[in-house]
Amino acid sequence: MVQIAPSILSANFANLWAHVAQVEAAGAEMLHIDVMDGHFVPNITIGPLVVQALRDKSRMTFDVHLMITNPDQFIGEFVKAGADIISVHAEACTHLHRTLQTIRNHGIKAAVALNPATPLTVIEYVLPYLDMVLLMTVNPGFGGQRFIPEMVEKIERLNTWRRERKLNFTIQVDGGINQETAPLVVKAGADILVAGSYIFGAADISTAIRSLRERCG
Ligand SMILES: O=C(CO)[C@@H](O)[C@H](O)COP(=O)(O)O
Ligand SMILES: [Co+2]
């Protein structure tokens, strides 16, 4: 069954826990936490302090998407704050294999994120060290962007690699996921759907989450 990971980027930061509590009550499996440094991406969001504050209240799996240069410097801080999964961008890691080992050595799950323009071959030799691959379906930096349709083929290809090589990482997609795009990416092989504006922008959060699940069968 598809898992839903609402992205807090589109939540109401003036009343963050109240908004996040609604996705937890609606049965979302994960909370997707977008960390941006104004350097790797042209936007700045939150750091470990906010993750820790939410951790004290929530039981959801915390899925931390690091859109920062030099992620190695902050892995320990985010683990201490309560991350269960950390995604680092391949484009931001000079020594990706080592970075993934660092994450796993902290006892949590390791994932790599790929920008839309980055080929899958960049992660070919680290696939056995991955618990999850995050395929960006928009350019990282902002919520509410349009899904890039060419990414469907990329998801299919990664799913084929996973099957042929008998690997068991999960495939997460992030960006522009809504009622129309969700069935396309799930059919292509996605297991986890990140959705920010579609869920947190909805009048009724639990209806939005349910509609995503129903559209994916
Ligand atoms: O990582 C990012 C953006 O960089 C995402 O997690 C967005 O926050 C998804 O937002 P929507 O496209 O679903 O509105
Ligand atoms: Co994200």
UniProtKB/TrEMBL annotation:
Gene3D superfamilies: Aldolase class I. It comes from the Bacteria. Its EC number is 5.1.3.1. Substrate binds at residues 7, 65, 141-144, 174-176, 196-197. CDD domains: RPE. One of its GO terms (biological process) is pentose catabolic process. Its cofactor is Co(2+); Zn(2+); Mn(2+); a divalent metal cation. It catalyses: D-ribulose 5-phosphate = D-xylulose 5-phosphate. The active site is at residues 34, 174. Pathway: Carbohydrate degradation. Binds 1 divalent metal cation per subunit. PROSITE patterns: RIBUL_P_3_EPIMER_1 (PS01085), RIBUL_P_3_EPIMER_2 (PS01086). GO terms for cellular component: cytoplasm. A divalent metal cation binds at residues 32, 34, 65, 174. GO terms for molecular function: D-ribulose-phosphate 3-epimerase activity; metal ion binding. It is an enzyme of class 5 (isomerase). Keywords: Carbohydrate metabolism, Cobalt, Isomerase, Manganese, Metal-binding, Zinc. Catalyzes the reversible epimerization of D-ribulose 5-phosphate to D-xylulose 5-phosphate. Belongs to the ribulose-phosphate 3-epimerase family. This is Ribulose-phosphate 3-epimerase. It comes from Carboxydocella sporoproducens DSM 16521. The lineage of its organism: Bacteria, Bacillati, Bacillota, Clostridia, Eubacteriales.
